[in-house]
Amino acid sequence: MRPITALPVAAVASATAGLAYASLYERTRWTLRRFEVPVLAPGEPPLRVLHLSDLHMTAGQRSKQEWVAGLADLRPHLVVDTGDNLAGMDAVPATLRALDPLLDLPGVFVTASNDYYAPRPKNPLKYFRREHTRVHGDELPWRDLRDGLTRRGWLDLTNATGELTVDGRRVVFAGVDDSHLRLDRYDRVAGAADPTADLRVGLAHSPEPRVLDRFAADGHDLLLCGHTHGGQLRVPFYGALVTNCGIDRDRVRWLHRWAEASPANPRGTWLHVSAGLGTSPYAPVRFACPPEATLLTLTARPG
Ligand SMILES: [Fe+2]
């Protein structure tokens, strides 16, 4: 009888240990990821871009708030926030406090489902179905967040375009609303990205290929997205089980080439998908996928 009972006990013990690790340790193992992206004109000095996404902040998450505030020490030239900032009705003041040192810098953002709606308990198995019915929680005070960011000079690129001078360089932007909720209205920002600018950047919360392809066709150099949480629960040596959107598993996080150079897109397009800094309060686990922000160092393309 002993081998028959020992196996389930061992399986339960290892599952419990894994869950404890994922919820108690890895979920708060704040990590800074770094990539170099050769997107600037030959001879240009580097630009540092801090990409934040999916904070899913609650008022009590002090260690996350302190870590985010400390990212200002990296002295980025530009900060990009690709949405899903909030996870509670009272989270806006804490989120703005965490971002406060970064709000003195040039910044841009888009908003998304977890800015608009409070999290709700969900059956995690539904993420394995490609199409599922979404049931929204109560509306969050996302306008207070938006106003807090724009008051300090950050550009709201939610279905909008904009332009900033960043370290003396002219950067043009286009962004869409949450494409996972099909709130994106690309036609409002469509058109060839200004070829006379020093850099052309596209923002979307969710990396939906139908949107990324349009940004690339319009000649954007760099696309920044979040939403996937990098898969959130990754299997070592296999990767993400699901991406929760249209992107493929291989590009569920980090830096990838999205489009090669073509006559319509003479420089080609890079894509960075942030694995994000948070989780829903109802699924507070990350495994083999630490919460992270990314410092992108934009460098000159080879001559
Ligand atoms: Fe998210």
Q: What's the short version?
A:
The chain has 303 residues and is of the alpha/beta class. Helices cover 21% and strands 24% of the residues.
Q: Biggest sheet, strands in spatial order?
A: 1-14-2-3-4-5
What proportion strand?
15-25%
Write down the domain tally. 1
Quickly give the structural class. alpha/beta
| Total of helices | 6
Mean pLDDT over all positions: 92
For the record, what is the CATH homologous superfamily label?
Answer: Metallo-dependent phosphatases
Helix-strand string: HEEHEHEHHEEEEHEEEEEE
The radius of gyration over CA amounts to 20 Å
Return the CATH class.
Answer: Alpha Beta
General form? globular
Annotated CATH architecture? 4-Layer Sandwich
The share of residues in helices is 10-25%
Give the N-terminus to C-terminus distance in angstroms. Answer: 71 Å
Runs in which pLDDT lies below 50 for 5 or more consecutive residues are none
Largest sheet: 6 strands, mixed
Question: How many DSSP-defined strands?
Answer: 14
CATH topology: Purple Acid Phosphatase, chain A, domain 2
Distinct small molecules bound, one entry per kind:
fe (ii) ion
Could you explain how this protein is built, in words?
By secondary structure, the protein is of the alpha/beta class. It has a single domain, classed as Purple Acid Phosphatase, chain A, domain 2. Helices cover 21% and strands 24% of the residues. The protein is built from 6 helices and 14 strands. It has a 6-stranded mixed beta sheet, covered by helices on one side. The chain has a 6-stranded mixed beta sheet with strand order 6-7-8-9-13-12, with helices on one face. A hairpin with a 3-residue loop joins strand 10 and strand 11. Helix 2 packs parallel to helix 3 and helix 3 packs parallel to helix 5. The longest helix is centred in the first third of the chain and has 24 residues. It is globular. The mean pLDDT is 92. The site of fe (ii) ion has 7 residues, from loops.
